[in-house]
Amino acid sequence: MIRTTHIDDFFTIAQADFFPNEKLQVNSAILKGRDYCVVWDTFSYPRNMMEFSQHLEKKTAMAVYSHADWDHCWGTCGYPFEHVVAHTNSLDRFENELPSTLKKMRNEHANGWKGVKLITPDVTFDEKLTIDMGYYSLELYQFRGHTSDSIVGFIPEWGVLLGGDSFEAVPVINDPAEVPLWLHNLESWIKRSDVKKVFPGHGSLTDKTIMVKNYEYLQGLSEKKMLPAPVDSKFYQQVHTDNLKKMGVVLGKQSKS
Ligand SMILES: [Zn+2]
């Protein structure tokens, strides 16, 4: 089951569970253009994408991956997309990481991801790619930090920034070496006066404050400050504990994700 919210005639967002027996949810969005639609991230289950595709009004659609983390791109085979767009660095992840992650998760959760077929992007870019939607445009930019293939999508006509996991209640640090770049990217987007709304990969449609909070958090950990967990949920407390260890603020072994 997905929870859908129509923001306006051109922009629909949805949330769905992405892990068995957990309340964790992942976001997706549909952007309606004149001749075709774009789906920003495709959930983790094809059945969720199938349900969300009712809002595509049978138009041709392309999917865009904010990054190749499994919870954002395993639902793609739930709809026959004409193209799948992502950052060039995602290709390596589709080749080497995702097949083994899928195998592992299928073993651990019987029936969990039964009909999942990995759909590798067929259109990739490095720095920037603009999609002409007819009434407006969708600009895709690299946003390295959370992962090496993270991107953001910006709609200048609306001031909406689609973020994947580049912005999150507690940002998930995978590689501490990427954090300086992450900070740099956050800083340049925080400075922009044309960003009005921010749509993260998890959680509600919000505004720039999430970027400011993420910047302060990542900057604090870079300075080895012992920060409190920004959010009081079991999941994010664990993320925070792992972040502290990864950034060398506290010593200890990270939990296996
Ligand atoms: Zn995610």
TrEMBL record:
Taxonomy, top ranks, is: Bacteria, Bacillati, Chloroflexota, Anaerolineae, Anaerolineales
Please give the organism: Flexilinea flocculi
Q: Which Pfam families match?
A: Lactamase_B
Locate the coiled-coil region(s) and give their ranges.
Answer: none
Query: Which SMART domains does the record associate with it?
Result: Lactamase_B
Sequence ranges assigned to domain Metallo-beta-lactamase in this UniProt record: 25-202
- SUPFAM superfamilies reported in the protein's UniProt record: Metallo-hydrolase/oxidoreductase
For this entry, the protein name equals Glyoxylase
